[in-house]
Every structure is written in C-alpha cells, then in structure tokens.
Amino acid sequence: MRRLLPLALALVLGAAGAQDYVFGIVYDAGGKFDGSFNEGTFNGMEAAIADLEADGLEIELLEFEGTPETSAQGLRSISEQGAELIVAPGFNQADSIASVSQEFPFTNYVLIDAVVEADNVRSVLFKEHEGSFLVGYLAGLMTRTGTVGFVGGMDIPLIRNFDTGYQQGVSAACPECEIISNYVGTTPAAWNDPARAKELASVQRAQGADIVYAAAGASGNGVIEFMNEEKCFVPSGEVRTTPLRDVPVSDAYAEQCGDDAHPLFFIGVDSNQNPAGDTDADPATLNHGLTSMLKRVDTASANGAYDTAAGAFTPGTQVLGLAEDGVGWALDAYNAPLIPDATVDQLEGIRQAIIDGDIVVQPYE
Amino acid sequence: MDWLLIGAIAASAIRATTPLLFASLGGLFSERSGVVNIALEGIMVFGALGAAITAQLVERPYVAQDPNAVVWFAPWLGVLAAMAVGGFVGWIHAVVSIRYKADQIISATAINLMAIGIPAVLLTGLYDNSTTSERVQNTLPTWGVGAVQFSPLVYLAFLLVPTAWYVLFRTPFGLRLRSVGEHPEAADSVGIDVRRMRYYGVVLSGVLAGLGGAFLSIGNLNQFVAEMAGGRGYIALAALIFGKWTPFGALGATLLFGTFEAIGTLLGGGNLLPPALVQAIPFILTMLVLAGFVGRAVPPGAVGKPFEK
Fold first, then answer.
1. Is B134:B52 a contact under the CB 8 Å cutoff?
2. Which of A146, A188, A343, B105 has the fewest C-beta atoms lying within 10 Å of its C-beta?
3. What 3-state class would DSSP assign to A87?
4. Strand, coil or helix: B149
C-alpha cells in the first residue's frame, strides 16, 4: 500500500499510440534513479531504444516504480497495454513474474537476479562474486590502513555473494588486511536508506576503514556522500605503501586536508559510479571513487530489447561472469589518474586468471 | 573498542536523536494544547521534501553556470521552506480537528497517507521518478570543533529543549497552552481563547516537525528519499509519552531511542544480535511505561477531545 497512488500516475502517461513496440521496466525497490542497479537497467534500455529508433522503429517505454508487493500490479498493467517486453530488475519479482508471465504468454520478460522457468521468461544471473573479487583485490592493494569496509543493502544471499567475493579479493591482495562488513537492513527498505548507509560508513571509518565498497542500491549513495564529505583521514599509526598515484587535489581537498592526510575512497556497484566521487567537476583531480564493480544489468536489459525487436528472444537462464563480460571493474577518466598502469595490468592478469580457472572465487553458500 | 569508535557511535546517536527530538518537541506543544498529532510522521516527510526541493531549485541556476558554485543560502532557504511547509500542514490538521472537530487521529492519518502520495507526484513532475529528488550540492554546513562536527540543526534541536521548557512552564503563553490542554472549559471561563491556543500549539508542532524533516534531507543527507521519515514521527510520539510530556523527558527519551537506533545500525549484518531486536527495545520500554510499570505517564487531561463551547 505504501506507494500505490503515485504509480498509477506514471502509467497514465503511456496510453496507446502508433508505435511499433511497447517496452516496459518494473522497478520493485530502491527507486529508478538509484545511480546503480535500477538506473543501470534503465540506461541500457534507453540506449537500446535510441539505437532501434535510429533504425526507424518507434518504441514506447512504460515504467513502474513499485515495491515488492506492488510489482505484480505494475507487470500486469504494462502487459495489458500490449508490451512486447518487460524488464524486471530485482530478485523479489520472481513470484510476480512467474504468475504474470503465464497470464500474458505473448509478452517477453527479462528477470534479473532470479530464475523463473517459462517459455517467455529470460532469467539473467550474474557472478557478482567474481567482479567483487576484482574490486576487492584493488582495495587490498590500495588500502593505507589495512582495513577496508563493505556496506551491503538488504541482508540476503545475493548481497552476501558480493561480500564473500570482495573478502576473498582483499585477502588475496593483502592477507593481513581486515574487512568490516555491515548491512543496511533486512527489508526492501534497505535499498533506499542512504542515511543509515552513511552512518555505517562513518562507523567503519572509525574502525579504520579507508576504502568502503557499497553494494546497496540507492543506499550506497550514503557511502558515496560520506566519502565525498569526509575526503581524507590523518593516520594514527603506520600506513602501508600503496601504488596510488600522486594526483593533484581539488581546492576543497587542499583546504580540508593537510599534507599528512590520506584520501578516502568508495567502490561503487552495478553501474559505473566513479563520476559520483568527483567533487570538483574535474576528472583529472583526486576522485573519491576508486572503482566500481560493474554488473552489466544494462547489457541484460538492452539485449532483451534488441532480441525482441529482431524477433530472436530466447527464454532460459543466462549466468554472466567475468568471461561473458557480465561483471567487471570500471576504469575511466575519473579513476585512471589514481591507478598506475602496472596495477591495471596486474588486475587484468587476475581477471584472466579467474576466467581461465587458475583462481577460483567461491560463491556464497 | 577504542575511543575513535565510541566517538563515532556517539556522534551517530546524536544524529539519530536530532529528528526525533524536533518531532517530539513538536508533539509536546500540540498535545499540551490538547490535540493529538500523529501527523508528525507525514509532516516530517513534507518538511524533508520542501527543504530538498527548495534548496535544489534555488541552487539550480547557479550550478548550471558553474558546477562548483557555492550557494550558501540555498540550504537555509530550504530550512525556512521546511518550517513553512510543516507549519502549513500542521495548520491543515488544526483546521480539520479544531475548527471542524473531526477525529484527530483520522485527520492525522489522512495527512500521513498524503505524505506517501503527494511527494511522489511532485517528484515525478520535477525529477522524472517517484522516489528521490535530485541531489542537492549545497547542503547545510557542519559546525563544530575538530572532529566534533554537526549540522547547525543538531545544535538547534538541543537548544530548543530548555527553550521549550521555559516557554511552557515560565511564560503566560505556556500556562495558557497547558490550561487549554488540561481543562479547556476552565480556561475558557477565564477568557482564554481555547481554539486560538490550540491553533498555536498545532502549527508550532508542524514547524518543529518540519525542521526535523529538513535535517533528514539536507542536514544529514543531500537529497529527499521516499518515506524518509521511516516511522520517526511515531517514535517521537512514543518518546513524548516515555518522557511524560515534558521537554527534558522528551530529550532523555529521544537520546535513548537515538542511541538504540545507532547501536542497531552498527549491528547490521553482524552475528552478535539481530539489529531489529535492539531497535525494538525502546518500544518495549514505552509499552511498559504506558502500562504503568515504570512510573505513570499521565497525558494532558483534555488531549484528543475537541472543545465544544
């Protein structure tokens, strides 16, 4: 009942027209612009639609922002409007997809993070632990204090999978390093509680963490906000030497932090959140986003659109790991100034070793 | 446990206390005047929304020109907007429950339900999604010495405690406010305008709860998030009861609740204790107080009853 009213409105906007295709996205928690999971799904869809429209097709996108309890309504209502494809990001939507996909056999569904077996449902899973291992490895190399943090969203096996991969990665790079791990909550509200995630980041900082990996949907913005605000720390003891490059700092950083201070970093998730760590609109200066664990929900969503438009939609389950480019780590103009080429090569080596099976990352059991 | 960690938890507890304290003091003025205000929850949401949208819209033209623009007055206008919006929503509750003598619980529940729908509509219009506002770049500054840094609203909340005590118990206004909450007929017979006093109480409670909302969105964070109050309005009322309808009682109770919230947050994901259990402890205590096991909590005599002249 919590968000019934508004959602109906979003749907009214999209009644029938003379379009070739109607595509839909149903979000179940965290909100559309979470900068992470949901937004990645949206961005992939938007890009695919732009692509297809450049080819002369006319496509309408219907969206529904709901809760796990209302997602079935959203799915049903968009299906009723004749959608050819609906993307449903979120494990909580599995039950809704299972029943709605039977009611609308001519609509294709892409379900992300859970499996439903039906002729019109494509389930996409990711090997989050593999991607998290890589960013954990980088955190292990880069931490000055020898302590790193993990902030998960809702405490569920899926997020524990990020956690365990990260821990293995940190330990592989730095066996003596400590990892503090916390979760925002145990209900879907945990995906959209940045205030609590920010408190967790502050407490982890007090316990020594100088790099925090947030796998928490929109809540992760609280961790990002904390790092951007706090910017640096003055070590109380010895610090490890790390390969962090000497980069120019923003004016605000120079003002807030002395010469003996070291920078604080977050690691983003799902989408590339590196740009969110840029506090002065200048990618060349010190950025607080060390990297992001890319989970290519955008690709999953875009592929659904391309396949449906080409009449080549296939049901079944896809499991995307490093080898399939389903997960990875983000390197762009924002964090390239931080990470030396040798470290980039080292990480690429680790990536290849995981793909080749020389390093086995254990998933959460 | 070292001092740094204890300090961080203490700071976290104080930040968790602040919105509760604003709302609890708001509830104090309303209930002391004889009007139950469970709309505090919804008013906080409206306050948070008003603050975030105002700050974001004020800074927008400046940020469009220079992404690093410092617009120091944007968040302060946001705070004023939160107070105005909170006062206005409080006034609606006052009109319905004082002038039209509707059931105060129903009126407030309607406001709480509106706080779910209206923000989503506004956000959809402004920011193309129904759950979050765009991030505000110029949030409230932090004031403090060294590592002790808090939003100005934190200091304001704590300063309001003795202020509220003074106003309620040492001024003619406070005496009148309490008298219309205890025995409106007696107050009326000595020429006190009961309705007017109740209007003051309820609107004031809206202004205070609105401040609590502003702290949530632009004091503690940099955006509005749907359902941001997260039950804090109700918790504040529980704290008010736990604090036996006095300002310092409310301070003690909200500090206790805030501390439990901070500890519960800290425990999230650990194996020590389920955080939900820790966060439930204050409510168990409140029930015990209500049931009379831990001293009696006596509400204002006429609270919840419309005044019939």
1. no
2. B105
3. strand
4. strand
Cβ-based contacts of A32 with chain B (< 8 Å): 128-131
Query: Is B180 in a helix, a strand, or coil?
Result: helix
Closest chain A residue by Cα to residue B137: A279
A186 touches chain B (CB under 8 A): yes
Q: How far is A348 from chain B (nearest CA, A)?
A: 31
User: What CA–CA distance (Å, rounded) separates B18 from A14?
Assistant: 42
CA–CA dist B246, B194 (Å, integer): 21
Confirm whether pTM is higher than 0.95: no
The CA-atom distances, in angstroms, between A305 and each of A38, A45, A74, A123, A208 are: 16, 7, 19, 14, 45
Alpha-carbon gap: B219 to the closest alpha carbon of chain A (Å)? 10
Tokens of A276: 């969110």
Measured between alpha carbons, how far is A147 from A129 in angstroms, rounded to an integer?
20
ipTM score here? 0.89
B103's enclosing H/E stretch is none
For residue A271, the 8-state DSSP code is S
Q: Do B8 and A31 touch (CB under 8 A)?
A: no
Q: Are A299 and A44 in contact (CB under 8 A)?
A: yes
Token digits of residue A242: 């790390």
Domain range annotation of chain B = 19-236
Question: Do the Cβ atoms of B92 and B114 come closer than 8 Å?
Answer: no
Nearest to B221 among A5, A225, A280 (CB): A225
Start and end residues for every CATH 3.40.50.2300 domain found in chain A: 4-125+297-320, 128-295+335-356
pLDDT in tens, A40-92: 999 999 999 999 999 999 999 999 998 888 999 999 999 999 999 999 999 99
Identify which of B133, B96, B126 has the alpha carbon closest to the alpha carbon of residue B224.
B133
Interface contact flag, A281 B127, Cβ < 8 Å: no
Instruction: Tell if the CB–CB gap between B268 and A194 is shorter than 8 Å.
Output: no
* Chain B residues inside the 8 Å CB shell of A214: none
Q: What Å distances lie between residue A106 and A21, A208, A300, A332, B77, CA to CA?
A: 13, 54, 20, 40, 52
Homologous superfamily of A4-125+297-320 = Response regulator (3.40.50.2300)
Residue ranges of A 310-339 with Cβ closer than 8 A to chain B: none
Distance CA B131, CA B139 (A): 19
**Is the per-residue pLDDT at A218 higher than 80?**
yes
Looking from the CA of B280 toward its CB, the CA atoms found within 13 Å total 6
CB B36 within 8 A of CB B104: yes
Contact B278, B260 (CB under 8 A): yes
Fold that domain A128-295+335-356 belongs to in CATH: Rossmann fold (3.40.50)
Name the minimum distance, in Å, from the CA of B258 to any CA of chain A.
12
> What confidence tens digit (pLDDT) does each residue in A276-306 have?
999 888 899 999 999 999 999 999 999 999 9
Contact A320, A296 (CB under 8 A): yes
Shortest Cα distance, chain A CAs vs residue B21, angstroms: 17
C-alpha–C-alpha distance, residues B28 and A265, integer Å: 43
| A327-329/A108-112 β-pairing | unpaired
Contact A199 B262 (CB under 8 A): yes
Measured in degrees and rounded to the nearest 5, phi and psi for residue B42 equal -65, -40
* Residue A213 near residue A151 (C-beta atoms within 8 A): yes
Angle between helices A297-309 and A37-54 (to 10 degrees): 30
Q: Give the closest-approach CA distance of A185 to chain B in angstroms.
A: 6
Residues of A in contact with B268 (CB under 8 A): 155, 182-185, 196, 200
